[in-house]
Amino acid sequence: MTDPYRVLNVPRDADPAAIKAAYRKLAKRLHPDRNPGDARAEQRFKEISQAYDLLSDPSKRRRFDRGEIDADGRPRGFAGFGAQGAPGGFRGFEDILGRMFGGGFGGGFGRGGSGPQSVEEMLRRRARAPGADAAPSADRRYRIEVDFLTAARGGEVRLELAGGRTLKLDVPPGTEDGGVLRLRGQGDPGPDGAPGGDALVTIAIRPDPRFVLKGRDVHVELPVGLSDAVLGAKLAVPTIDGPVRIAVPAGANSGQTLRLKGKGVAAPDGGRGDQYVRLVVTLPDPPDAELSAYLRRWATARRASEDVEVERA
Fold it and tell me: How far, in Å, CA of 70 to CA of 76, rounded?
């Protein structure tokens, strides 16, 4: 992978919020579900996921910025094993290289063994090997769909891991579509006895026919009968916490919006968004004959009154 900052198109001093926003924007556009059969989009999705995995982890990001690991999370160089007397000594250095290059240092350096006689030769042979640039990763990625209310309120879902094993996944309140949850130690075993990897779970949120999320605010439409709109009423409206009753003012029109403070989705800072209720005035179905007759009389009388006003003017 190239520079993760370039992959996400963010500056090197970007804060975590900017990195997350950049990742979500790209993830939504490049997700395999939105680009079926597009190999390039799938590869880009993998790249941005890997870049976000590195930059969203403060420890990994600091190590990358200091040059201790590369963009794939692999250590750079052989710090601490450079010469006799260093931690682990020369033999420790040889053992490390042996593990990295598949045991190729069995014969040591210039001791008559059958292995490579120099680091340079070792590296040349490694470079010629198939898949030389591929590094095994112990992390394993998963994708799970959750309903809107579970993502908004938080909840527990079951995740099936590789090998048929299942576990309970805690979805925190306010989880966003495309967000990634990390399960420590639930990935694959690490290579050569290294610590095991993590499970990285991408959350896909199923839409809800009642709610539309805009940022941390929830938007709903509330049908209002004609008499309730004209006379005013108290009506039940759904929220992510359950139905509540709101006062519809007399003379309400379609498109009028009422605000329910603090009834939105949880924010990272501990606050919550609001809910906005858009009123939609509806007529009786089927039409009411008495109401229709009254409105015809009312409309006729109103037109006559307007004509009189015009004549006076």
Answer: 6
Residue 172: asked if its preceding bond is cis (omega within 30°), the reply is no
Q: What's the CA gap between 213 and 264, in Å, rounded?
A: 9
**Alpha-carbon distance 39 to 189, whole Å?**
28
Tens of pLDDT, residues 30-54: 887 777 788 888 888 888 888 888 8
Domain extent at residue 184:
136-207
Which CATH number belongs to the domain containing residue 198 in this structure? 2.60.260.20
Query: What DSSP designation does 188 have?
Result: P
Contact 107, 113 (CB under 8 A): yes
3-state secondary structure (DSSP) of residue 193: helix
SS3 144: strand
As given in the structure block, the two tokens for residue 15 are 């804060």
Distance CA 168, CA 201 (A): 12
- Mode of pairing for the β-strands spanning 217-225 and 275-282: parallel
Whether the pTM exceeds 0.70: the reply is no
Report the DSSP pairing between strands 199-206 and 140-147: parallel
The residue out of 189, 207, 225 marking a domain boundary is 207
Alpha-carbon torsion (73, 185, 181, 58), positive or negative: negative
Query: How many other CB atoms are found less than 10 A from the CB of residue 189?
Result: 11
Within 13 A of 126's CA, how many CA atoms are on the CB side?
Answer: 20
